[in-house]
Design a protein that fits this description.
By secondary structure, this protein is mainly beta. The protein has 3 helices and 15 strands. The N terminus is likely disordered.
Length: 287
């Protein structure tokens, strides 16, 4: 009798679970997607002027079978791109430009080198083929040096124990809030996704000192690349919105995240125009 009650109870439980696992298709009436110009431009002292100017595509568009054709179609062609600094004007010509260090491709460029100017604004002006404009302004911030990189092994006695890496640096300016991006690559700068890639402010600094750490994950003999970017508030906001958008992608309960840009003009563009200054330290994990 008890056995029969168990069987009936189990059957009822299974039916209840099955009934809760119903699926129903819902048709959503989405508004027509309007493409926007997208700008990415990073001014790095000592490197050429590069800018990527494309058009956004709908999230719900089918994945293109012809990747080459898709990449060709999303380019904003025929634009006039000018960057000004002090009394000099740089015209960025349309073409194909490759930054082999970052493995990024751009479609507007000028082979003159970005000057190391930490005092004056850089101004961007883009006139699209349809006559609409995109404008922005930014500064290149001075680098914040890394004071030291400390390797600590979990156990001094165990030969094959793993190590963590602690990166120390001092706040750039105690009288104002500063913003940073920290990347940590494992063994390769170009062939690996960063083990760490996040943004932070100096609000948590203690007596002007900041430390970024890792878990005990690195074997002896590995190579660690620490990169510390000193970034503008506008670039911080842009990155934060991009990271939030990536985090909510595919999450049915997440809210869509708007990309925060520092672009003006009547073209309704999204993206970023910013200076890029950083310091990088390579460390071999050893006792």
């Amino acid at each position: 009798m008890h056995f029969l009650k168990y069987i009936l109870g189990s059957a009822f439980f299974i039916l209840f679970i099955a009934a809760c696992n119903l699926e129903k298709e819902i048709d959503l009436d989405l508004p027509v997607y309007e493409s926007q110009p997208v700008v990415e431009c990073y001014l790095e002292p000592g490197k050429p002027f590069y800018l990527l100017l494309t058009k956004s595509a709908s999230y719900f568009d089918p994945f293109p079978a012809d990747i080459t054709g898709f990449l060709e179609n999303i380019q904003e062609k025929g634009a006039t791109v000018i960057i000004r600094n002090k009394d000099k004007e740089y015209l960025l010509a349309e073409g194909i430009y490759i930054d082999f260090q970052t493995q990024k491709v751009f479609n507007y460029g000028n082979t003159e080198l970005v000057p190391e100017d930490f005092d004056n604004d850089f101004e961007l002006e883009i006139r699209l083929a349809n006559g609409k404009t995109i404008t922005s302004a930014t500064k290149i911030l001075p680098i914040v040096p890394i004071d030291s990189v400390v390797v600590e092994f979990k156990s001094a006695e165990v030969k094959d124990s793993l190590a963590r890496v602690l990166t120390y640096f001092k706040d750039a300016n105690l009288s104002a809030e500063n913003f940073f991006r920290r990347q940590l690559h494992w063994n390769s700068l170009t062939d690996s996704i960063p083990q760490q890639d996040f943004i932070a402010t100096d609000r948590f600094a203690e007596n002007g000192k900041i430390v970024f750490g890792t878990g005990y994950t690195f074997p002896e003999g590995d190579t660690i690349y620490n990169t510390l970017y000193h970034i503008s508030p506008a670039y911080f906001d842009y990155l934060e919105s991009v990271f939030n958008a990536a985090a909510s992608n595919g999450n049915p309960f997440g809210q869509p995240s708007r990309i925060i840009s520092n672009l003006d003009g009547d073209a309704n563009a999204i993206g970023v125009f910013t200076g890029l200054s950083y310091v990088r330290v390579m460390t071999i994990v050893k006792r």
